[in-house]
């Protein structure tokens, strides 16, 4: 039997950050994970994740993003590793579309610097891009990508240095709350914790069966394509890109290694009942849609596939996160339903979960992410 102040269940993207902040504050904390993070079985793998500030999804995320940028910067300093690469992010869409209108709204409300590009200016500045007719571009320079596995690895190493215990290949089968503490039944020892922080990613619904908000897990795919055009390379200042087209939302990254250019479709995805139904199998239909996008908008890129991966999104009904303290269980704090856009926030979410466990409150503006919005 192990006892601790806080047990973090799931030490992937968010849980690794929470473990670090709890350990750094001197809390007796243990991290538990069914695999050995960073791993390729959940939602935090596949080399890179986009980070951007002028958030088209909802302007209320901007203060949390500012906090996240600051915290990633602190992680780079503490670990002495470069984790964030400020390539800029170019987002292309119709002026009336969700993306361009959302960026303009966030930028205006939060006084953010975003450069507008006409159709012609995009073509002149980025010779490898052919935007759909009538589309414009928004270039955010203080944006780019994070190395996803390296971030998790850095947090876990630092957490251990600060005294966290990490138990990998340890699945939490169930928890019960009794006499002011949580008993966690695992495939190993029984764990007693005064509080728990649940960061189970695609497994969140199994860990919080009474959350009362439906979570839908989607299988999503990532593709890398061979490239011999210098204009798509990181060292040629090619930015991360996202296109909102009539045929869907596609995004990708400048080439950073021999696998070429990484691309994916952001909307749609294959619903699965539980993460146990996930597999790395290819979805040919999805792949052909990505390749149709490549041929029309990135015509200098080949469609010779060098690598592919599958990953999971965990969607809430409104595609905004669930974050906070459980309304019915004192001492249970969670981040769930990150809806395919959560990694960039992981550093801030880790801080917030640590604040909730240590102080019972946070000064970060997270009310709009409360599960109470669905009741
Ligand atoms: C293809 C793809 C592309 C994406 N692109 C972006 C992007 O560009 N930018 C962005 O910001 N976000 C992006 N996202 C979303 C982002 O990656 C996720 O929101 C984020 O990584 C989820 O982190 P998490 O900690 O919730 O889940 P995970 O990192 O999956 O962590 C959950 C952990 O919980 C563990 N676990 C689960 N159940 C148990 C249990 N019972 N006992 C013990 N351990 C357990 C798992 O093993 C896992 O390690 C993308 C996601 C995908 C799939």
**Count of helical stretches:** 8
Hetero groups: flavin-adenine dinucleotide
Structurally, the number of domains stands at 2
The CATH homologous superfamily of the largest domain is called FAD/NAD(P)-binding domain
Distance between the termini: 38 Å
CATH class of the largest domain: Alpha Beta
In short:
The chain is an alpha+beta fold and 375 residues long.
Characterization of this structure:
By secondary structure, the chain is of the alpha+beta class. It has 2 domains: about 160 residues, FAD/NAD(P)-binding domain (3-Layer(bba) Sandwich), CATH 3.50.50; about 150 residues, D-Amino Acid Oxidase, subunit A, domain 2 (D-Amino Acid Oxidase, Chain A, domain 2), CATH 3.30.9.10. It is built from 8 helices and 20 strands. Helix 1 crosses helix 8. Flavin-adenine dinucleotide binds next to helix 1, strand 3, strand 13 and strand 18.
